[in-house]
Specification:
Blueprint: H1 3-6, H2 10-19, H3 25-32, E1 44-46, H4 48-61, E2 70-72, E3 89-95, E4 100-106, E5 110-116, E6 120-124, E7 127-130, E8 136-139, E9 145-149, E10 155-161, H5 163-168, E11 174-176, H6 190-195, E12 216-217, H7 219-228, E13 240-243, E14 258-264, E15 273-275, E16 279-285, E17 288-292, E18 295-299, E19 304-307, E20 313-317, E21 323-329, H8 331-336, E22 342-344
The structure holds 2,5-dihydroxybenzoic acid and fe (ii) ion.
Length: 345
């Protein structure tokens, strides 16, 4: 179509502008100028009863080669995107005794939350970080890392990465280390010895990055912290909720991924609210229920649950003991960009 013909009727005009890769705001306003966020990701729960079987079978079917044996949890609403929520990917990774997962690095940041077993490690920038059930282990962006299991238990953990966010920003880089493992340059326990002690800090360390220098947050200590607070009121929306913080700044442990743990006491039913940004929960202890936009998700330990942005949600403890939830979120990003909001009903 040439321009003079196109300008003869409104229909022809619109066809013409589309051919020229233009759209009038009046055409898209109804679908795009939405009063509220309209996430494509849906709330979804991956039950441990299912994941356990799949993960066990992956040990038989798939050797650990160049790639990790990590089952990526794809959100059913995201049409096959490598994403559990709009910004986060969660996966369940398994490593059997004697196995080694090849060293590499990438621009997305990662966390590991240990679901089952003890005795594997993630080596990050020369330090072996030993994994124990319930521990949080950081793998900040662009740091060389490999995983190994020199113990005698099969170890399973949840990976959490900001891959979809980094992909969206076209800032994704990935590199394999020339050898299977990167050299160890620091003793086991070094980052915890330096930065993991209550309120004291080495005076000779001048360096301070946006990334936490504490690389392992042990569940022994975190659990103790939760229980010490069990008689506090806590948050009406999150219960006794604790953020894993950067020991030098008090900010989030990683610049792009927030990490939280929350305890719901027996009988505790939290209030519903919405927040901008998405989260992925991993059940640590107990049993309960999360209701998201009217949909009920009953959970038990090691279930993983995706919570999209601005969905109305609340948690409740339906079991006899305490219930504990670990979660990752993209809130540090939203807060830095001043896009974080919350609204209670
Ligand atoms: O173990 O380093 O689930 O690089 C996805 C990408 C795990 C890992 C994943 C990764 C890793
Ligand atoms: Fe990795």
């Amino acid at each position: 179509m040439n321009a003079p013909d196109a300008f003869k009727s409104p229909e022809a005009f619109h066809q013409y502008i589309h051919e020229q890769h233009m759209h009038g705001l009046w055409e898209i306003s109804g679908s795009q100028n939405t009063p509220l966020p309209t996430p494509e990701a849906v709330p979804h729960l991956w039950p441990w009863s299912l994941m356990e079987q799949v993960v066990r079978q992956s040990c038989v079917t798939v050797p650990v080669g160049n790639d990790r044996r990590a089952m990526q949890l794809y959100n059913p609403g995201l049409g096959g995107r490598w994403a559990t929520t709009n910004t986060l990917i969660a996966a369940v990774q398994v490593l059997m005794p004697t196995e080694v997962a090849r060293a590499h690095r990438h621009s997305p940041a990662a966390i590991r939350f240990i679901m089952e077993g003890n005795g594997a490690y993630t080596a990050v920038e020369g330090e072996r970080l030993m994994m124990k059930k319930g521990d949080l282990v950081l793998t900040p962006k662009w740091q060389w890392h490999d995983h190994g299991n020199e113990g005698n238990e099969t170890v399973v953990w949840m990976d959490g990465l900001d891959v979809p966010l980094v992909k969206m920003l076209d800032a994704f880089f990935f590199e394999r280390y020339p050898e299977v493992t990167a050299p160890t340059t620091r003793p086991v326990g070094n980052s915890q010895a330096l930065y993991g002690n209550a309120g004291v800090m080495p005076t000779w360390v001048k360096r301070q990055d946006a990334i936490s220098p504490l690389m392992v947050y042990s569940y022994d200590k975190v659990r103790e912290a939760l229980h010490a607070l069990r008689d506090e009121e806590g948050s009406p929306y999150e219960g006794i909720a604790l953020e894993y913080t950067h020991p030098q700044t008090g900010g989030p442990a990683l610049p792009t991924i927030g990490n939280r743990i929350q305890m719901l006491r027996p009988g505790e039913k939290l209030k519903p609210r919405r927040v901008t940004g998405s989260s992925v929960f991993c059940v640590v202890e107990g049993s309960g229920r999360t209701v998201i936009d009217g949909k009920v998700f009953d959970w038990v330990p090691n279930d993983i649950l995706a919570l999209p942005s601005w969905a109305l949600h609340h948690h409740e403890n339906t079991g006899k003991g305490e219930a504990v939830l670990f979660s990752i979120n993209d809130r540090p990003v939203l807060e830095k960009l001043e896009l974080y909001r919350e609204a209670a009903e």
